[in-house]
Structure formats: C-alpha cells, structure tokens
Design a protein that fits this description.
Blueprint (H helix, E strand, L loop, with lengths): L1 E5 L3 H11 L6 E5 L3 H12 L11 E4 L10 E4 L15 H18 L4 E4 L4 H10 L8 E3 L3 H15 L6 E2 L18 E2 L2 E2 H7 L7 H19 L4 H15 L4 E12 L2 E13 L2 E5 L6 H21 L1
Parallel strand pairs: 1-2, 1-4, 2-3, 4-5, 5-6
Antiparallel strand pairs: 7-8, 8-9, 10-11, 11-12
Helix pairs in contact: 1-8, 3-4, 3-9, 4-9, 5-7
EC number: 1.1.1.27
Function: Catalyzes the reversible oxidation of malate to oxaloacetate.
Catalytic activity: (S)-lactate + NAD(+) = pyruvate + NADH + H(+)
C-alpha cells in the first residue's frame, strides 16, 4: 500500500511514525513546502527500521508526481491555529490551499482514498469535494473520530474501566456545535445512567462532559501549541480500517445527501469504513433533541461554507 502525506507538520509527521510500523505499507511519500526539514524527518525515521518488524517501506520526500498511484492520501497541510483563534477562523485561508492541493492529488492519484485533516475539517472537505470529481465515498474527513475517542476516555475516567468498553460518539461538526447523542451511548451494553446506578457510581454530568469534549482540544493547544498525538492515532485508525477492509463503524465527516434530513453538508455521522472508503452511512433513530442538535450543527457548517465560496 502506497500512502502520501501532504503536510508534514506535527500531525503529518506523527502519522508517518505510525505508518513506518505498519507492515502493509510499502511506500510513504511526504510532501511539504519545507523540503529540508522533511528530509530530516524522513532520514530520522529511516534509522528506526532496524528496530521494526515491518516491510521497511520506501520513504520518499517529493512532490505530487512522486505520489502518483497512491492508495491513500492524507491531507494535513494548511494554515494553523494561533493563540485565541478557533477552527472557524481558518476557513478562507485553508479553502484556497485545499483547492490547490486536491487538484494535484486528483491529477496524480485519481483512484486514491483521500482523508482530509485540515481544519475546519468539515468545510475544507466540502471544498475539496466541490473542487474535484472524487466521490464522497473516497474523499471524507477524520471528522469527529478524535472527539469520540476523547468522549470515551472522559467517560472511562468517570466509571473506572477501559475506554474500549465505552460506546458512543460525538457527531455533527468537529467544533463548537458537535453533540453527543446520549440515547445511543452505553457502557458494557448498559445505557450510561443505568450502569452508574447499578454500580454505585455518581451519575455523569452530561452537559459538562459535552463541553469538555468540545473544549479539550483548545486546552491542549493552549498548553503545548498544537494537538498531534490523538488526531494522528485517529487517522491511523482509519487507514487500518481501510487497508484491512474492517467495515468498522466510525464517525467520519462525509457529504450528506438527504441523510438525517441534511443535504449538501459535510459532517460526522456513523459510517461503515472499509476497503472502498465510506462503504455506507449508518442510520440511527435519534431523539428529538438530538436531531435538532444535528440540524443546528449543519446550519453552522453551512454558514462557514458560505465564507469559503
């Protein structure tokens, strides 16, 4: 499997670190404007291969021509947050950047699956789709996969068990209007309130958890200047699901076309992810308030899309 990373900042570099240890990856192409720095990163990664039990993938610092025939392309490039900004503030700058990138990706790897990570990721993915002929099944975003992992960890800390035993999602926008559909969340098969009651655990403050999930990324950013470990792990999770044809249900940002009463908006809903990318969108019967929250999130994304055009 050939994977190209466009944008070798903190996130792209960490994704590369995961891929070097993935036996199924035969070639990694790194594309970035700062070629000298990326050459240093790839040279550094090359010295890890004596310790790994993988295929020792070919690692290339190159341009889009070198990426030709990629199976998966991950796009992390774009203007980055500065102190005091939100993801929404990046709309105009990154909309211009993504149009340039997706044209080159389509030129050299028209059959690739493209995963967009650049923020604000819902809007930027919409722009990429509208600026190319990639179908929504093969061009989608990391969406709220990281938000959902954060949610599972926060609940896990409350109930004192492994986060892999928590089921639930943050859906909608990867941002301020994302929401948790509590009606489908559970701990070990029990709804969260029931699990807490039966096991002598205080009930969860759902409003506080929702706010923490939405804001914890900014908390990390304020302390270290970026977020990279969690999002890189989320992207790697998607790549594994694609390569292994897992058909796992994951919350990714996909173009909705009348699903859940929303049309022509990219936002995160549960999707089956496999060898062909987004194999299908999973339907849930959300409660009235949850459906309303999803529509509010869609309306907010539409307002940002207007800025990108």
């Amino acid at each position: 499997m050939k994977v190209t990373i466009v944008g070798m900042g903190a996130v792209g570099t960490e994704i590369t670190g995961f891929l070097v240890n993935m036996a199924e990856v035969s070639e990694i192409v790194a594309i970035d404007r700062n070629r000298e720095r990326v050459e240093g990163e790839i040279l550094d990664f090359s010295h890890t291969t004596s310790f790994t039990y993988a295929k020792n993938p070919r690692m290339v610092v190159g341009d889009y021509a070198d990426s030709a025939g990629s199976d998966i392309v991950v796009i992390t490039a774009g203007a980055q947050l500065t102190q005091g900004q939100t993801r929404d503030d990046l709309v105009r700058a990154n909309s211009v950047i993504i149009r340039e990138i997706i044209a080159e990706v389509e030129r050299y790897s028209p059959g690739a699956i493209v995963i967009v990570v650049t923020n604000p990721v819902d809007v930027i993915t919409w722009v990429a789709l509208k600026s190319s002929s990639f179908p929504r099944e093969r061009l989608f975003s990391s969406g709220t996969l990281l938000d959902s992992a954060r949610f599972m960890r926060i609940v896990s800390d409350h109930v004192g068990i492994d986060p892999k035993n928590i089921f639930g999602y943050m859906l909608g926008e990867h941002g301020s209007t994302g929401f948790i559909p509590w009606s489908i969340c559970n701990v070990c098969g029990l709804d969260i309130d029931t699990y807490c009651r039966l096991n002598g655990i205080p009930l969860i403050d759902k409003a506080a958890v929702s706010a923490e999930v939405r804001n914890v990324g900014y908390e990390i950013f304020n302390r270290k200047g970026n977020t990279n470990h969690g999002i890189a792990a989320a992207v790697f999770r998607l790549i594994r699901a694609i390569e292994a044809d897992e058909r796992s249900v994951l919350p990714v940002g996909v173009l909705l076309q009348d699903q859940y009463g929303v049309d022509d908006v990219v936002m995160s809903v549960p999707c089956v992810v496999g060898r062909n990318g987004v194999e299908r969108i999973v339907n849930y019967a959300f409660g009235f308030d949850e459906q309303a929250a999803l529509h509010r999130s869609a309306d907010h994304i539409k307002s940002l899309i207007a800025l990108a055009q």
